[in-house]
Amino acid sequence: MSPHFYFLAAICAVLFLHPYVTYPLSLRLLRARPLAPDPASPLPTASLLFSAYNEEAALPAKIANLEAIKACNPDIEILAYSDMSSDATTAMLARRPDLLTLVPATERTGKATGMRRMVAQATGDICIFTDANVLLDPAAVTPLLSYFRDPAVGGVSGTLRYINDADGVTASVGGLYWRLEEHIKALESRCGSMMGADGAIFATRRALYPHVPAHLLDDMTASISVTFHGLRLIRASDVVAYEKGTTDPRDEFRRKRRIACRAFNTHRHLWPSIRRHFTALDVYKYLSHKLLRWFGAPILACGIAALLLAMTLNGLGAYALGLALASGALFVAGRLFAVPVLSQITEIALSIAATFIGVIDALRGRTYAIWTPAASRN
Fold it and tell me: Is the dihedral of CA 47, 50, 51, 52 positive or negative?
């Protein structure tokens, strides 16, 4: 029976690594689908929207960034939603009616509800979505809107760069993961559509904005939904935004868990439409980019268990035990001490575990509608 367990371990290894290794390699083999913007078409009008909760520390830089964006794009409309902030966020936004329109809240409702309210009030042809702690290159708005001169484009995702990769293991791993994510999104976009955009910076045609229940990810729902209309969701390398990542592993674990729970709930909400509208290629992209990552922890655990069991059945039980104990000791060392490479691997393992715990939360019926910014990113 041991060969069967070795085979199972190999299958699990392939499935676990596929989203990060063989999937992006496979995308390189697909035919490129070039864009066809009409240079004679006028730029569409735009509304820039963001939700905030207790962001007084981030708002001075954000407001300065909005001023720079407005200077480059005088006609842009800016709307901000304060989700019953308990600090000075609402007051700071309310003091700038010359710059933005504050959409007030009467109760804590969460980001998705805030975005829905702002979209309903927006007047621009294109809604540009961002976050309160994200800074957008002021010169990026014009190229972003230019992509919508192609009638086949329904949504555009910008490129997010973390600016504090050197601030500890958690930040460095987060930056590394995001660079890989941006690379995969670029490959997906090259041959069709991305499998969802990040809320830090993306834009869609306002008329396509769907109803997003409060406990779901508004960025994932709104961005993927444009493809249900037969339009493309693309990545723009010349639309750049900047953000600080979390530096506390506990903050990052909670963030990953919350996002994964909301993402899996969003998956269940979108799956009927995905089955109805996606091509075979898009389903392959979605399963590779999303579903396999959410279940990375049990796939990895199954592979390790199969390997250890196969070794034991082959008379290598002592080696299997030693391997398990050594792996556990290395994990503890990487968690407690700043050991190069080892600490990064430990952080990745915790991230994978947090993601699957979030999936379990979703399967058990848990939801997250409201959020609290991670203190360690300021």
Answer: negative
Q: Which domains does the chain have, with CATH numbers?
A: 33-249 (3.90.550.10)
Q: Distance between CA atoms of 96 and 118, rounded to whole angstroms?
A: 17
Per-residue pLDDT of the chain (378 residues; tens, 9 = 90+): 568 889 999 999 999 999 999 999 999 999 999 999 998 899 999 999 999 999 999 999 999 999 999 999 999 999 999 999 999 999 999 999 999 999 988 889 899 999 999 999 999 999 999 999 999 999 999 999 999 999 999 999 999 999 887 778 888 888 889 999 999 999 999 999 999 999 999 999 999 999 999 999 999 999 999 999 999 999 999 999 999 888 888 999 999 999 999 999 999 999 999 999 999 999 999 999 999 999 999 999 999 999 999 999 888 889 889 989 998 888 888 888 877 888 888 999 999 999 999 999 999 999 988 777 777 666
Sequence-distant (≥ 6) Cβ neighbours of residue 10 within 8 angstroms: none
- Helix and strand numbers (H, E) in the chain are 14, 8
The CB density around residue 166, as the number of other CB atoms within 10 Å, is 8
Sign of CA dihedral 267, 268, 273, 275: positive
The pTM of the whole model exceeds 0.90? yes
